[in-house]
Design goal:
Strand order of the largest sheet: 1-2-3-4
Number of strands: 4
Structural class: alpha+beta
Oligomer: single chain
């Protein structure tokens, strides 16, 4: 079952229904995740459904439009070996 925590304007959750696979895939294509490449969207959905996730949102649970807006952080634990990139010199 999904878990939830809230404190000081932040909300943490393991609930995957808050995650948009298209948005997560866009993040995979940025320097923030230099070690990964974007995935086919069906692969992304499968990865998210089979991984442990923890997302940190910068808003209160139950707030109007809670499921809209940026998250403060996202942790996705996956098996290694998918789309590994070289480490950029500035990291």
């Amino acid at each position: 079952p999904a878990r939830y925590w809230a404190r000081d304007g932040f909300f943490l959750s393991t609930d995957k229904t808050f995650l948009d696979p298209f948005v997560v895939n866009e993040i995979f294509d940025t320097d923030l995740m230099w070690w990964n490449d974007p995935l086919d969207i069906d692969q992304m959905r499968k990865m998210l459904s089979n991984c442990m996730t923890l997302a940190i949102y910068s808003r209160e649970l139950g707030a109007l439009g809670f499921d809209e807006g940026p998250s403060a952080g996202l942790v996705v634990l996956e098996m290694p070996g998918n789309g590994v990139k070289d480490v950029p010199e500035d990291h």
